[in-house]
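Thread: Newbie trying to understand structure tokens

Hi all, I'm a second-year student working on a class project, and my supervisor (Dr. K.) asked me to get a predicted structure for one chain before our next meeting. I've only ever worked with sequences, so writing a 3D structure as a token string is new to me. If someone could post the tokens and maybe explain what I'm looking at, I'd be very grateful. Here's the chain:
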Amino acid sequence: MQDLPYEIEQKRLNGTVIVQIKGRMESGPLDKITQTVLDEMIGEDRKFLILDFSELRYISSLGIRMILDVKMNLQKRNKEMALVGVTSSILQVFHLLGLSNAFQFFQDREEAIKSYEESSKQ
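---
Reply by user tm_fold:
Sure, no problem. This is what the structure looks like when written as tokens:
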């Protein structure tokens, strides 16, 4: 069995699902990440997804496509997502692909949760 270039950790905090991706999102079965994220978001009480990239070292265009697919899937179900801990080099990839406005970026989990809670009250 081949080692994956990434690790996934997930946890739930009330209606928020936090998925941390560590390592490199490049080759290999990236669909495992997609399936893990979407499985975690099943349930009416799970409304907000945070993808934590603070320990992500590299992302390929295929990895970004996977994240875009997750976002579109969640939007169809009236759920939201945010990216946190994105390094400047990975953020630059989003800019180069013209996708920096397609996602919400935050410094950390707490900032993302606070923003989501404030927008949910309106």
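A couple of things are worth pointing out once you decode it. The radius of gyration is 14 Å. The chain has a mean pLDDT of 90. Feel free to ask follow-ups in this thread.
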